[in-house]
């Protein structure tokens, strides 16, 4: 068993629901909307993936998170009760349609008798109906005893129980999206962010800092450049500008990766560290605007700024300065 699977087994109930929400978002683009409801009055729903804007009046998937104590697996009685909740709340009008897929998320696994029922879906309806009084009637809600009405029974009998599945920690971590989601929930150190590369043409996302650098280079030669593209074609400053664009897109790739894969706030902290690390150098008196840019780049390269304990590559720290310029926090030109 992998260390990632072990970590998944050890997280608490709230973390498990948060993990499943993030994991489902990353592994599938089929959902119109994903909601995490899990609470005392969740009506049998922890994490929901709505396939259309119709939500509970259309198709949806249900991920029911069952974290068990150390060494314990999800049992048959608890699972049948959870299924019973869905049919009860469906008949109560909480959701007009039943889920197209029902997934027990049980990191520590499920007991053999439950596995037999799930793997023989035609037996689940009878098990739920026959065991209703024992497993469901007094367990679905504390407010009342829930009897197996004809309406609930009919809904159970007409349901396709091949829609019911289960997932364990070893099964989940085989998915490449599991690692980043768990890293974000637990604040673990993610893998190295992928490198970025600058496109040949100036992109809308870099327009603000690139136009400031256009002014910087124009001051350096005493002739205004019409556009950033003109700078790229310049014999003396074209290569320097290309280096700045590479740094910008290195930082852009870094930001995208860590926005998805690290704990909330970690990226903002890193950006602020870079800002406070270079702003005094930026505010110093410099003979030219270009000297200011170069001084900030040199200082950014030696900043000790890191993200969740991981050393950040030099072009990322330098490129983050251009993102600060793009956002108006640090300007290269008036």
From TrEMBL:
Pfam families named in the record: CTD6 (PF20282)
InterPro entries documented for this protein: ABC-3C_CTD6
Residue span(s) of domain ABC-three component systems C-terminal: 206-332
Origin species: Bosea sp. NBC_00436
Keyword terms, alphabetized: Plasmid
Protein's name in the database: ABC-three component systems C-terminal domain-containing protein
Domain of life: Bacteria
């Amino acid at each position: 068993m992998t260390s990632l699977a072990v970590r998944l087994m050890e997280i608490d109930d709230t973390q498990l629901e948060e993990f499943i929400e993030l994991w489902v978002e990353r592994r599938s683009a089929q959902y119109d909307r994903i909601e995490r409801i899990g609470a005392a009055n969740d009506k049998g729903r922890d994490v929901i993936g709505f396939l259309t804007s119709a939500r509970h009046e259309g198709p949806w998937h249900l991920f029911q998170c069952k974290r068990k104590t150390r060494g314990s697996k999800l049992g048959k009685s608890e699972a049948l009760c959870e299924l019973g909740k869905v049919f009860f709340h469906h008949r109560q009008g909480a959701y007009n349609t039943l889920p197209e897929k029902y997934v027990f998320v049980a990191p520590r696994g499920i007991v053999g008798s439950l596995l037999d029922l799930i793997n023989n879906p035609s037996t689940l309806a009878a098990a739920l109906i026959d065991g209703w009084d024992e497993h469901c009637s007094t367990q679905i809600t504390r407010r009342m005893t829930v009897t197996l009405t004809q309406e609930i029974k009919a809904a159970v009998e007409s349901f396709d129980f091949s829609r019911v599945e289960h997932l364990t920690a070893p099964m989940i971590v085989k998915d490449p999206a599991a690692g980043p989601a768990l890293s974000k929930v637990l604040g673990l150190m993610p893998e190295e962010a992928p490198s970025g590369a600058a496109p040949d043409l100036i992109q809308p996302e870099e327009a603000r800092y690139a136009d400031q650098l256009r002014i910087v280079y124009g001051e350096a030669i005493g002739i205004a450049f019409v556009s950033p593209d003109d700078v790229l074609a310049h014999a003396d400053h074209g290569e320097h500008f290309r280096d700045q664009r590479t740094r910008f897109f290195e930082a852009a790739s870094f930001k995208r990766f860590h926005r998805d894969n690290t704990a909330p706030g970690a990226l903002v902290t890193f950006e602020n560290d870079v800002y406070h690390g270079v702003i005094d150098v930026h505010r110093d008196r410099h003979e030219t605007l270009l000297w200011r840019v170069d001084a900030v780049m040199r200082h950014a390269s030696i900043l000790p700024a890191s993200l969740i304990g991981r050393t950040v590559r030099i072009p990322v720290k330098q490129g983050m300065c251009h993102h600060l310029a793009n956002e108006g926090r640090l300007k290269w030109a008036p």
